[in-house]
Sequence to fold (140 residues):
Amino acid sequence: MEITPVDWSEIRHFKRSEFVCRCGCGVERMDHGFVQFLDELREIYGKPMKITSGYRCPMHNAAVSKTGHVGPHTTGLAVDIACHGYDALMLMRHAILMTDRGNGITGYGMSQKGPLQSRFAHLDRLQNAPNSPRPWIWTY
Fold:
């Protein structure tokens, strides 16, 4: 799937810096339609959404994820959002309802164990693949 670079002037609730790879390389290759979805989700959710992981360069992804050099975050179509408890439930609820309207979110992951500050929700828009059926929901 080819991504369309983000026109940040059209995004109301997020800045490019929130999606830049955390390794320090300065790369951000998010998909415009996906970030537009997140912007609309933020509007409906009604609260700030802290992006804890947006784009990851292949080297950084291999260092922090079991998915190696080609994980979801390397596609520009995945994010992790800091949330826990009721807020996590409401975030996922809104994302699922938006998907029912045809936005194409296909991956829903939840990490709700451990310290509150390390809990998050994962959303992505990956395509169906042999070892990665979609749509799909999982826990970490």
In short: Strands lie at 51-53, 78-82, 107-111, 120-124, 136-139. The radius of gyration is 14 Å.
